[in-house]
TrEMBL record, chain A:
Principal localisation: cytoplasm
The protein's name: Segregation and condensation protein A
Function of the protein: Participates in chromosomal partition during cell division. May act via the formation of a condensin-like complex containing Smc and ScpB that pull DNA away from mid-cell into both cell halves.
Family from the record: Belongs to the ScpA family.
Source species: Fictibacillus barbaricus
The protein's assembly and partners: Component of a cohesin-like complex composed of ScpA, ScpB and the Smc homodimer, in which ScpA and ScpB bind to the head domain of Smc. The presence of the three proteins is required for the association of the complex with DNA.
Keyword annotations from UniProtKB, A to Z: Cell cycle, Cell division, Chromosome partition, Cytoplasm
UniProtKB/TrEMBL annotation, chains B, C:
NCBIfam families documented for this protein: SMC-Scp complex subunit ScpB (TIGR00281)
UniProt keyword terms in alphabetical order: Cell cycle, Cell division, Chromosome partition, Cytoplasm
Pfam families: SMC_ScpB
Function field: Participates in chromosomal partition during cell division. May act via the formation of a condensin-like complex containing Smc and ScpA that pull DNA away from mid-cell into both cell halves.
Protein family per UniProt: Belongs to the ScpB family.
The name this protein goes by in its record: Segregation and condensation protein B
Subunit structure: Homodimer. Homodimerization may be required to stabilize the binding of ScpA to the Smc head domains. Component of a cohesin-like complex composed of ScpA, ScpB and the Smc homodimer, in which ScpA and ScpB bind to the head domain of Smc. The presence of the three proteins is required for the association of the complex with DNA.
Keyword tRNA-binding: no
Presence of the UniProt keyword Cell division in the record: yes
SUPFAM superfamilies: Winged helix' DNA-binding domain (SSF46785)
Length: 247, 197, 197
């Protein structure tokens, strides 16, 4: 199950941190490191549970957060040795560098949103390809090709495929057989019952098609939500067992 | 729908459909009106383009309507072709050339399958410019002509051999990945809706 | 040359140039008149297309004039299957593009420093789409590639020039944004909590 697709929805550790800061409504300039670190690690953990590829950048950030956290926990009594005024001026907050990066990143994330808006406004207008002007070329010029580079050709290829994709949906969506989630939920319950109410998580994904995997996964989430099943896992990375709950 | 809007959309449709043209049935479908209702609008539009201060006119070939430039302005388009900065290959020709370069040997109908449109004219242009040529015949019935690029093609793009063509961008495959992600989220949202009921 | 003819040819030139657009200098060259003489004609043409019974309007992107359809008619053009929709960029590509747009020329590692993640793939996508390009090499060891935005970038976002980019926000008060991903994770975590009980 490799859903390293955009499933996680985050563009990297900074994006995830911004999300946490927003969710917990904390001040970006005064981040409660302990809480944020804990939440951050929980996300990483969840991603691993989902067998998502956790990019190394996320782990580097986790280490950074832990380092900041420990620096902030340094025994206070040492500080008493210094003049209080001095300390305020001299000592650097271990969070400073991280805050600087977050604020910087946030600016561009915001700019990206603005571009997105412009892009969608732009998508409401249509144009046409330049007309074929070859009939207007003089005979002796016909053999010549100027102002065309490899790059133009690559662009053209790109365009061909874009157009092909744009044309495609009308032809393919009809033939896809959709499995309703409710149906899959029933199937999962029945298959659990048939083996005494307990099954390995991975055994539910035997049919390899992508849609089947997606629907099965969502059906499991839904079954957990309505408390029809329970999931347990003894250790990190060990097999997850699905158990039927009393109805 | 207002009369003015119908007129405007017909003009816009003629414009976006470019050199391919658009037939009356399609226009009627887009506007969700009866084909017969179109006539007065098209006549009016045709007439307005006949004025001497207009640059295009509307022609109808084999049931397909399209904008074309006026013959009396030909001299200006000839000049345009010669202005520096004007690319000498049309977009259609470039696309066709790209497909041939990456997928040769290839038949015309295979090219048309990828592009989704007729490709006779661009192929003629490319042959005339010596960039592509016939390299053989396909097996099977019809024995269609197979096209490939020429030595002049390599020279023009400064390539030693076809192996030096830049690799095709990965995101051509990416598009299908995005569709899968979409499938995931649409399923997921579907499940949320179910839950709300 | 007659006034009507000038007007007609400008219209025709805009038409044949399609989404490539045409700049004032080229138009003047083709007409063999002075660039300054063009303005009243272009203004007049622009104005005539503003009427509600017209399907296109004239816009100026990246210094090039071009015809585009009117946004209020988008729904009709969408019904034409053959018309490719604008492909939209992924979040990763948009972020990368935003950083390049504001900080160009910039190296890949500088972009990665801001984003905090590898940026090879989005950069490839953007290059392949012609939205960014190599604009030079950085000084010093390695002589890393410097990236900048292209004319196609301006066109893609309907900008006249880079100056039209909105100023970067210095202090952002973010309202709480509900994300799909968040829904997803809260679901999942909820389920984990259930399991812990």
């Amino acid at each position: 199950m490799q859903y390293s697709v955009k499933l996680d929805g985050f563009e990297g550790p900074l994006d995830l941190l911004l999300h946490l800061i927003q969710t917990y409504e904390v001040d970006i300039y005064d981040i409660p490191v302990a809480i944020i670190t804990e939440q951050y690690l929980q996300y990483i953990h969840t991603m691993k549970e989902l067998k998502l590829d956790v990019a190394s950048e996320y782990l580097v950030m986790a280490a950074t957060l832990l380092a900041i956290k420990s620096k902030m926990l340094l025994p206070k009594h040492e500080e008493e040795l210094f003049d209080h005024q001095m300390e305020l001026e001299m000592e650097e907050d271990p969070r400073d560098e991280l805050v600087r990066r977050l604020v910087e990143y946030r600016k561009y994330k915001h700019a990206a949103d603005e571009l997105k808006e412009r892009e969608s406004a732009r998508s409401l207008i249509y144009t046409r390809q330049p007309a074929d002007l070859s009939p207007f070329e003089k005979e002796e010029k016909e053999k010549q090709v100027t102002n065309v580079t490899l790059y133009d050709m690559l662009q053209a290829m790109q365009r061909v495929f874009q157009e092909k994709v744009a044309r495609a949906p009308k032809q393919t969506t009809i033939e896809r057989q959709e499995i309703p989630i409710e149906t899959r939920m029933e199937q999962i319950k029945n298959s659990l019952l048939s083996v005494g109410g307990r099954k390995k998580f991975t055994e539910l994904f035997e049919k390899g098609t992508k849609e089947h995997v997606v629907v099965t996964f969502l059906a499991i989430l839904e079954l957990m939500k309505v408390k029809s099943i329970n999931c347990e896992q003894k250790d990190h990375f060990s097999e997850i067992y699905i158990t039927m709950l009393e109805e | 729908m207002e009369r003015n809007e119908i007129k405007a959309v017909i003009e816009g449709l003629l414009f976006v459909s470019g050199d391919e043209g658009i037939d009356r049935k399609q226009i009627a479908q887009v506007l969700e009106i009866d084909v017969k209702e179109l006539d007065p609008f098209i006549d009016e539009l045709k007439k307005s383009y006949e004025a001497s201060d207009r640059g295009m006119s509307i022609v109808e070939y084999a049931g397909s309507l399209q904008f074309v430039t006026k013959p009396e302005h030909a001299v200006f388009y000839e000049r345009l072709v010669e202005t520096p900065g004007h690319s000498t290959l049309s977009q259609a020709a470039l696309e066709t050339l790209a497909i041939i370069a990456y997928k040769q040997p290839i038949t015309r109908s295979e090219i048309e399958e990828v592009r989704g449109v007729k490709t006779e004219k661009p192929l003629q242009t490319l042959s005339a410019k010596g960039l592509v040529k016939e390299v053989g015949r396909a097996e099977g019935t019809g024995r269609a002509i197979l096209y490939g690029t020429t030595k002049a093609f390599l020279e023009h793009f400064g390539l030693q051999s076809l192996k030096e063509l830049p690799p095709l961008p990965e995101n051509i495959q990416e598009e299908s990945v995005e569709q899968e992600a979409d499938l995931f989220f649409s399923k997921f949202q579907e499940s949320l809706t179910v839950e709300d009921q």
